[in-house]
Prior knowledge:
Two copies of one chain form a homodimer. The first copy, chain A, has helices at 2-9, 18-25, 29-41, 66-74, 101-117, 120-124, 130-134, and strands spanning 45-48, 54-57. The first copy, chain A, has 139 residues and is mostly helical. In chain A, helix 1 crosses helix 2 and helix 4 (66-74) packs across helix 5 (101-117). Chain A is elongated. At the A-B interface, helix 1, helix 5 and helix 6 of A face helix 1, helix 5 and helix 6 of B. Chain A binds a DNA duplex (30 and 30 nucleotides) through helix 3.
Amino acid sequence: MRAMISLARSYDGGSVALSDVARAEGISLGYLEQLAASLRKAGLVSSQRGSHGGYRLVSAPAKVTVGEVLRALEGPLSLVECLSETGRSGSCQHETGCPSRVLWERMRDSLAQVLDSTTLADLCHQPESQAAIAARPGH
Amino acid sequence: MRAMISLARSYDGGSVALSDVARAEGISLGYLEQLAASLRKAGLVSSQRGSHGGYRLVSAPAKVTVGEVLRALEGPLSLVECLSETGRSGSCQHETGCPSRVLWERMRDSLAQVLDSTTLADLCHQPESQAAIAARPGH
DNA sequence: TAGAATTCCTAGTATCTTACTAGGAATTGA
DNA sequence: TCAATTCCTAGTAAGATACTAGGAATTCTA
């Protein structure tokens, strides 16, 4: 999520190499590459290979919800296995008449409401990390 | 949570042995004993040792929120380590100016709102599981 | 008073997830 | 040509979760 916010902040500046994001956010490059692959397959970022290549957001930060990001990285929203957004039924024997099912549904929907209503732009307005500032070109 | 709802349904009937709950909900007795220990230490249930002993809710189901139950079992509500209800600061180097912090706060508060506003009584009104019915005295 | 039913306590374990590391291949611009 | 980048796959260390196992303490009842 920090990486996506970092990309969002650079949205007007073209592609950003993952090595820059890695340095700014204190995430290893290898790990970031794996996350980026998921984000690319989900159509949230586009990539440019080779020298001076990098990643960039496909849509404007205000158009990208954190729900989309989270789903791209971790699959359908789910707090318990038997009750994900896409419904993995059959994974729990207690499903029929499970008394706590209603609770998990409420929790899932409450979370989804937050995730689908906050965008990357919302989070960009927060103060930038010291590491990110120090890692910017010119520092 | 299913065990607590089971106890809530027996609230007027005195103590219930964990072996009954275990049978009704398909949870192993040994595991249930460990959960019960946490619930007892949190003051949510009281226990009676010996023959014809068992557990019972201390307060009426309508007075017990699932938030209390969850906190008793799993500690302070927390989706990410650096931002639990009691605040375990220092666990994350990115804390200062972390751009995603606001997001996790919103999610945590949204969940807490659900958890602290639904009671065991709310969940008791749901249909009872087949196993629980079959395990009731008289079946 | 014996014995059965229960809670209480501690230690160990199997499985899964998360957050990585490692190493190399393919691509592209200078 | 070469350096910088993305792309791909496999392996791994640590921790959490959901248990199992075994036994000690307590209490009611026959």
